[in-house]
Protein: Pantothenate synthetase
Organism: Rhodopseudomonas faecalis
Amino acid sequence: MSRTPIVARTLPALRRALDTLRARKATVALVPTMGALHEGHLSLVRQAKRRASKVVVSIFVNPTQFAPNEDFGSYPRTWKADLAKLAAENVDLVWGPDAKTMYPPGFASKILTEGPALAGLEDRFRPHFFGGVTTVVGKLFTQVRPDIAIFGEKDFQQLRVVTQMARDLDLGVKVIGIATSRERDGLARSSRNVYLSDEERRAAPALYRSLKETAGRLRDGDKIKAALAGGAKLITAAGFELDYLEARHAETLAPIRSVADGPVRLLVAARIGTTRLIDNIAV
């Protein structure tokens, strides 16, 4: 039977709720989200429940990680539906601050990271992005003080950046990456999938298929340049405009010369219509 989670919208309410959760020395897992929850998010919640006795889900559409030409204003916001889904999963606490709570008047600090944040992947196309992500995630970690934090591997560069930040700043949080949740046809689940037209949705699984084919070619001994060229051809033939398709070291995201330099991760970002999708797989 589901139960309604505690909902905190202010910092004092959050602190009171967390004190209650920790009264019996409970372990706390945080699942950070921007709402518009789908099955991928709920799979993260279920993984969190396996790893901790109490689960906190944050819902905050973070304005600082959107550029002026991006979709902050139109990003889907489904608060009531999100709460119903989290109640069905027996989440203990939902942290739903507004922008003024997260960034009050006079706010003037930012967490900037290097290493995987400057890998030449998402940062090349969205140079504003990781400064916004690390600042808001750093705040969430200090506000909630979780024992563990659960992130999906779909945003793989983000996972590496957040992991590095938590380690470098001694935030006391173990960051855990969970395998990408996919539709039956292989498309990575994303809140932005709702932007796809019917025709675009039918074409979108080509992104994952190209990753699998490229990974297979690399495992069979193809050179990286040739395998990536073949994958890029498949992606553009499906109607995508390719931002990047890269083979990188899975831990550092540094460029590699061969599979022997691995472990290897393939990462892709491409646009179809007005929607930009990202994905990645291990080789």
User: Anything to note?
Assistant: The radius of gyration is 19 Å. DSSP finds ten helices and nine strands in the chain. The chain has a mean pLDDT of 96. The beta strands are 6-8, 28-33, 54-59, 93-95, 148-152, 174-178, 241-249, 264-272, 275-282.
